[in-house]
Design brief:
Family: Belongs to the class I-like SAM-binding methyltransferase superfamily. RsmB/NOP family.
Number of domains: 3
Distance between the termini: 68 Å
Number of strands: 9
Active site: 314
Keywords: Methyltransferase, RNA-binding, S-adenosyl-L-methionine, Transferase
Helix content: 40-55%
Order of helices and strands: HHHHHHHHHHHEHEHEEHEHEEEHE
CATH architecture of the largest domain: 3-Layer(aba) Sandwich
Shape: elongated
CATH class of the largest domain: Alpha Beta
Structural class: alpha/beta
Enzyme class: transferase
CATH superfamily of the largest domain: Vaccinia Virus protein VP39
GO molecular function: RNA binding; RNA methyltransferase activity
Radius of gyration: 23 Å
Oligomer: single chain
Strand content: 5-15%
Length: 372
């Protein structure tokens, strides 16, 4: 059977439904497919787009389903519905090409349902969460934390395919992450600690200026990514270590700059992580806040007098951003907040928030604190 973009996407979607991560499932399939570049790009769009819009696609499919569907049939219907409703692929092309990729036993069913969907477009969505294809709790939480207008615009932006930005040294990194590294404001010769550094994008950017960047992460496999990227980019001033950021094996008060790019709910990077919206749970936020506070207490101890701590997260929840800032202000009144460079940062507490729609980047929050 000839390998096609839709066939590769359908196999990737089946793996994702079984629990695989989208960014791991698809590349291996593309590598083996030997598809030309245009077809690889189309397979990527189908895989990530269908994964993002899964809830909306199911809303289109389910009125015509009378019995439980096999997973491979459900995946094919979602992929077909995505083409019809979101890529505006002509029905004759979307339906026939999708039907060709499913087992013969299901072709009649898939053909009939997709044609019914095509005839019923455009849909009447019941609510914003279904239209935008997010879990209810994400829409409700961001609407509460950001205001409904900003939240809806952010969620719409994160349904678009992410742009690709390549640094001067060849490393592919979103502009938002580059701006976070720039906010660390490293001077030549500075000693920098990056305590949650993997995969090393920010650490290698810092290492282009710093005298030393001590870059750690809790998992040896993730530190391996830091080392791999540092070696590839020739980051001679980067020294990697494996450790829990709550107990870093570093000398207290020894660093001019400390970056804590903390583990978070990731609600600012959902366009880049297509399946993340279906993995993260509302209950995770509370656990992450507790971890962030522990990491911050350890990071504060590493900053020399007059040095700076930079706290960053790639999420938009108030609990992990402005509420963290309020707790730090109460617990550490000796730390002085510093302004952020760049008009892209919208004031949020004493720090700055970057919404995805502001500059077409990932969503971020940054807080800069100077030690006395």
């Amino acid at each position: 059977m000839t390998t096609t973009a839709r066939g590769v996407a359908l196999r990737a979607l089946a793996r994702i439904d079984e629990g695989a991560y989208a960014n791991l499932a698809l590349p291996s399939l593309l590598e083996r497919s030997r598809l030309p570049t245009n077809d690889r790009n189309f397979a990527t769009e189908l895989t990530y787009g269908t994964t993002r819009m899964r809830r909306a696609c199911d809303f289109l499919i389910d009125p015509y389903v009378l019995r439980p569907l096999d997973p491979d049939v459900r995946a094919a219907l979602r992929m077909g519905a995505y083409q019809l409703a979101f890529l505006q692929t002509p029905p004759h092309a979307a339906v026939s090409a999708t039907v060709e990729e499913v087992p013969r036993r299901a072709r009649g069913l898939v053909n009939a349902i997709l044609r019914r969907i095509a005839d019923a477009l455009p849909p009447r969505w019941p609510d914003s969460a279904t239209r935008l294809s997010y879990p209810d709790w994400i829409v409700q939480r961001l609407a509460s934390d950001l205001g409904e207008g900003d939240a809806i615009e952010a969620l719409e932006t994160m349904n678009e395919s992410p742009s690709v930005t390549t640094r001067d040294d060849g490393y592919v990194q979103d502009l938002a992450s580059q701006w976070v590294a720039d906010a660390v404001d490293v001077a030549p010769g500075d000693r920098v600690a990056d305590v949650c550094a993997a995969p090393g994008g920010k650490a290698t950017r810092l290492a282009s200026t710093a005298g030393l960047v001590a870059s750690g992460d809790v998992l040896r496999s993730r530190v391996g990514l830091v080392v791999e990227n540092a070696d590839r980019l020739g980051s001679a001033t980067l020294a990697a270590f494996v450790a829990d950021g709550r107990r870093p094996p570093l000398r207290s008060g020894a660093f001019d700059r400390v970056l804590l790019d903390a583990p978070c709910s990731g609600l600012g990077v959902l366009r880049r992580r297509a399946d993340a919206r279906w993995r993260v749970q509302a209950s995770d936020v509370e656990d992450l806040v507790a971890l962030q506070l522990e990491l911050l207490e350890a990071a504060i101890g590493l900053v020399r007098p007059g040095g700076m701590l930079v706290y960053s997260v790639c999420t938009l929840t108030a609990a992990e951003t402005v509420e963290i800032d309020r707790m730090l202000e109460r617990l550490h009144p000796e730390l002085h907040a510093l302004p952020l460079p760049g008009e892209q940062w919208r004031p949020a507490g004493r720090g700055g928030r970057l919404l995805p729609q502001t500059a077409g980047t990932d969503g971020m929050y940054v807080l800069r604190l100077q030690a006395p």
